[in-house]
Write a structure and sequence with these properties.
There is one protein chain. This protein has 670 residues and is an alpha+beta fold. Among the domains are: 112 residues, Nucleotidyltransferase, domain 5; 106 residues, no CATH class; 99 residues, Dna Ligase, domain 1, CATH 3.30.1490. It is built from 18 helices and 36 strands. Helix 11 packs across helix 14 and helix 14 packs across helix 15. It comes from Microbispora catharanthi. InterPro entries: ATPase_NBD, Hydant_A_N, Hydantoinase_A, Oxoprolinase-like. One of its GO terms (molecular function) is 5-oxoprolinase (ATP-hydrolyzing) activity.
């Protein structure tokens, strides 16, 4: 085992977990995020919890970041130029024929990241089988380089038709671009994706070029500051598809880190379910991560992450491994307001870290979910992590103006409404990853984490009719725990449309060997997946394959089982391969235990006045430190720890499991 630090940057707080392998010591820290310069919040968490000698012993610093995502959300990245095959200049604008919202008559697609004047064509053509139909014209690349220089282009994306089958023209175009004097980053589509579908591959390559301008300098600055503090290990960055990348790889392939932050909590939930599922009595788990800005959820079945191979951010498709995490704007900082019709609304806009909820006393005046929870006693009065002093009076002052326009009687009722609406938004997101997939959430356990996740555990259980809520150790920093447990993962894919027949598997073996050589990961655990479909269909299912062990019948049977599970029937039609996928996994620690929670320290005893949603009334309830919880305790009560608070309503009971998890079980129906 090695000493590892995990730091997750959220919209409101930056969370740190350190696991010292030499002593078994656990350190946690939670600091306000600094949106204008996220590295400052990361370094503040390091300075608050990690002395120089311990930082010097740290082997891996694993970082989950939203820098790439924020660059896309804010449209603040590089000025990108696109070089593409003649006739394909407008692929980014033509998009697909579907609409993001079919019921919005006024829906318009987001503008492309590259304006038309910077999308330039070159003469060349490669066929789908990789044969060269027409050679690349060097003069076209030189003219593009001149135009980019005149326009002040920072980065260039090169996307030529069918380059996944033969990348020679893309490599030559990059070489000519350098010879013409362009010194900025160049993204080549065959290196970024390696899959067909021109729109998706073009968009992915452009996104890579767009966010690299911010991601690379950010990571290198963070690495430099850590080393100035004595860090001598390796900086890793989590991927959207789980696992982590080395610094150089993350800076070179920043599109793989777009969902770096939300994935860590899902990965930690999957590891918890895989290692403790039998002892906890849970098979299917729903990750419920309630942060300051958003609610993130994922469905975990059989301890496995729900992995997709294409995601989407703000209407932009990305061909990249992607953990299916659904996010809604329902976090602690989500702003409550009255709409034009006098209805109470919550989110998606957030007060974020600056100025934050009104009760933080940092300049915020708008009412938020945190203000409502504090007013209802769901959060203990006083200090919280990050050195923030909570003000009940400020929370009440922010909530009071909502009573008039909504017609709600009093601040108490407004606060109850805000919390219930936020919980309803969260439950709807959970249904999106369960019911929409044919999974009944009533048979699952809710794993509640994030700074506000344990506050909403019982409310989510009632909304979803779930009987079990699990609050893991270090619940408030559980996403950072997922970082501490990450492996180093690299992946590559190659489109290869052909029938699944007797000749297919030997060909797949040769292709995967080429892909693994490209990944260059000595000692990595190799994983191979195939995108398969019935001949004549458009969409695929991804099936794991054990090369050298599986025969044609085994692969076909595995696909039929997955097809029946997804669609409720099977078809006799022959199968075909669409894409071969190779993943290399370097396991940092083969046997990593759960990271236990540190002691709460002083405080956290006595009673408090809190609102019981089950009873619809105020109650005087005990406040118990997590480490003091013995036996079964029935709600209402609060369980406190350094980075989170667990709210247990009437009708529920909580018990400390030997693993360190809190098990909340339903005792009666509302």
């Amino acid at each position: 085992m090695t000493t590892v630090i995990g730091v997750d940057v959220g919209g409101t707080f930056t969370d740190l977990v350190l696991h010292d392998a030499a002593t078994g010591e656990i350190r946690v820290a939670k600091q306000p995020t600094t949106p204008s310069a996220p590295e400052r919040g990361v370094l503040a968490a390091v300075d608050a919890a990690v002395p120089a000698d311990l930082l010097a012993r740290c082997r891996h610093f694993v970082h989950g970041t939203t820098v790439g995502l924020n660059a896309l959300l804010e449209r603040r990245g590089a000025t990108v130029g696109l070089i593409t095959t003649a006739g394909f200049r407008d692929v980014l604008e033509i998009r697909r024929g579907d609409r993001d919202d079919p019921y919005d008559l006024f829906w318009t697609p987001p503008p492309p990241l590259v304006p038309r004047r910077l999308r330039l064509e070159v003469t060349e053509r490669v066929a789908a089988d990789g044969s060269v139909v027409r050679d690349l014209e060097p003069e076209d690349v030189w003219r593009a380089a001149e135009a980019f220089a005149a326009e002040g282009v920072d980065a260039v994306a090169i996307v030529l038709v069918n380059s996944y089958a033969n990348p020679a023209h893309e490599a030559r175009a990059a070489e000519l671009l350098r010879q013409a004097g362009f010194a900025g980053p160049v993204s080549l589509s065959h290196e970024v994706s390696g899959e067909y579908r021109e729109y998706e591959r073009t968009c992915t390559t452009v996104v890579d070029a767009f966010v690299r301008h911010r991601m690379g300098p950010y990571l290198h600055n963070l690495d430099r500051e850590l080393r100035a503090r004595g860090f001598a290990g390796e900086l890793l960055v989590t991927r959207s598809g789980g696992g982590a990348l080395a610094l150089a790889e993350a800076a070179a392939r920043p599109f793989e880190t777009i969902l770096s932050g939300p994935v860590a909590g899902a990965a930690a939930t999957a590891r918890l379910a895989a290692s403790l599922g039998p002892s906890l009595g849970i098979g299917t788990a729903v990750a419920a991560d309630v942060g300051g800005t958003s609610f993130d959820t994922a469905l975990i079945e059989d301890g496995r992450l729900p992995l997709l191979y294409q995601g989407e951010v703000v209407g932009l498709p990305l061909q990249s491994p992607w953990v299916d995490v659904r996010s809604v704007g329902a976090g602690g900082g989500s702003v409550a307001y009255a709409d034009a019709g006098g209805l109470l609304r919550v989110g998606p806009r957030s007060a974020g870290a600056d100025p934050g909820p009104a009760c933080y006393q940092r300049g915020g005046t708008e009412p938020t979910v945190t203000d409502a929870a504090l007013h209802l006693g769901m959060i203990p009065r006083g200090h919280i992590s990050g050195g923030i002093e909570l003000s009940e009076d400020a929370a009440a002052r922010a909530l009071a103006p909502l009573a008039g326009p909504t017609g709600i009687d009093g601040v108490d009722a407004v606060a109850v409404g805000v919390v219930r609406i936020a919980a309803a938004h969260m439950a709807q997101a959970v249904r999106g990853v369960t019911v929409e997939r044919g999974v009944d959430p009533r048979g699952a356990a809710v794993v509640a984490f994030g700074g506000a996740g344990p506050v909403f555990g019982c409310l989510l259980a009632d909304e979803l009719d779930v009987d079990t809520v699990v609050v893991p150790p270090n619940a408030g920093n559980f996403s950072a725990v997922g970082l501490v447990q990450a492996d180093i993962v690299r992946s590559a894919a190659r489109t290869m449309v052909r029938p699944l027949d007797d000749e297919a598997l030997p060909l797949v073996e040769r292709v995967t060997e080429t892909l693994f050589e490209r990944l260059a990961q000595p000692g990595a655990v190799r994983e191979v997946d195939l995108d398969l479909r019935h001949r004549g269909q458009e969409h695929t299912l991804t099936i794991p394959v054990r090369l050298g062990e599986d025969d044609l019948a085994a692969v076909s049977a595995r696909f039929s089982e997955a097809y029946h599970r997804s669609f409720g029937h099977t078809l006799p039609d022959p199968l075909e391969i669409v894409t071969v996928r190779a993943t290399g996994r370097v396991v940092l620690d083969a046997d990593r235990p759960m990271v236990p929670a540190p002691p709460s320290g002083e405080g956290g005893r006595g009673t408090t006045r809190l609102w019981s949603f089950r009873r619809g009334a105020w109650a005087e309830a005990p406040v118990v430190r997590r480490e003091d919880l013995g036996g079964v305790a029935e709600g209402p009560l609060l369980v406190v720890e350094p980075t989170a608070t667990t709210y247990v309503d009437a009708g529920f009971a909580v018990e400390a499991h030997e693993s360190g998890c809190l098990m909340i079980t339903r005792k009666d129906r509302p």
